[in-house]
Amino acid sequence: MTGSTAMTSTVPAPPDARPGYFGRFGGQFVPESLFGALDELTSAWEFARSDPDFLAELDLLRTRYGGRPTPLYHARRLSEEAGFEVHLKREDLAHTGSHKLNNVVGQALLALRMGKPRVIAETGAGQHGVATATAAALFGLDCTVYMGAEDCRRQRLNVVRMQLLGAEVRPVESGSRTLKDAINEAMRDWVTNVDTTHYLIGSAMGPHPFPTMVRELQAVISLESRQQWAAQAGDAPGGPADLPDAVIACVGGGSNAIGSFADYIEHDSVALIGVEAAGQGIGSGHSAATISEGREAILHGARMVALVDDDGQVQPAHSVSAGLDYPGVGPEHAHLAETGRATYVSATDDDALFGFRRTCELEGIIPALEPSHAVGWLLRHGSDLLEPGARVVLTMSGRGDKDVDEVVRVAGWDVGVDADDGDGPDVPPSTVTTTGGGDA
Ligand SMILES: Cc1ncc(COP(=O)(O)O)c(C=O)c1O
User: Which range (3-12, 227-236, 323-332, 338-347) has the least confidence?
Assistant: First the structure.
């Protein structure tokens, strides 16, 4: 396919949509001091999204700098084990190692157009922070990234990457010292420095226009995968297997999933499956499965679904993966869940670690822990929703270099480099316990 990346996604607006709403969810619930900045951003985005110069520049950066299109790869050994035909959309091969750059480059170009010399960002896994620091270096912007102190510990590699790229990383010690707390601090910074600063939100969440803008910038994932499917895997257009049976993606705030779903939403034959992090299990009190366990709430500037108690207090989330360790989910996902167009399931830490190991062992790909949730769910629970042999696109949203140390720590392996310790391999092979879907 060519490098051309049309910007419009085909997500149908709900019939009674107010601008910035997905059904009941979305909106702008922010302090008055941010109204001006959100209006300015909305206008800049509305103009840019149909401005040929903006689109051409974005397209050029995505292809020649960012490495798009990313491959759609038929993972044969994983398919065999899962019992489904699995095609991985390889966002892990994009520059900086995840889907996050798709959104960041678009918003950084907007910051330049709005004349803002400084960008700030929140980050959990560090991938959005790295992408933002990358764009800031590329465009000569000042960059500050807020990151929970616990996430700085477990994603140390990405802290160093951001620093090498010239960003200031501010560890956040409040609350659970994870993504939610980093967003709180970034919001505070934005309110204080709104004239000079663009808050480059990293997921399909936050006040309008962020959820819409991030979805449109991430829609490149599904726009590409549909073309690639038609060229590589499907029948001729209109044929019985013109489209995959399902599209599967992990869900933190929801950006890689909404980008993966966007161009399939109007095709009802395609099941859309979002995989949330269930941490130590649904009902354990240590989970980040927002749609499974949460309720309607206002969080971080929008009406969404979040883990809150009876008094509306936000509850701490838990996941082995820093990028999914967030107690909310973006408004469009809340709406897709409510209307039943997408199905949201969950994978535990253990499922994710299993998905991580099997992707390494079967495909020679070290995945990030976030998409490992999607792989783990497919291997162990896919047959709950999918027919044997179902043909699926699964978004491999990032690569796992950042997670290697944490996986070793959680698993308790002794990986000292004493090659002669005589007690066999330091990293034991995984034990296969799938309940996949049959023959692929
Ligand atoms: C590789 C990767 N995948 C997924 C996510 C989750 O974010 P989102 O739901 O916005 O895609 C993150 C977040 O940091 C990530 O780094």
Answer: 3-12
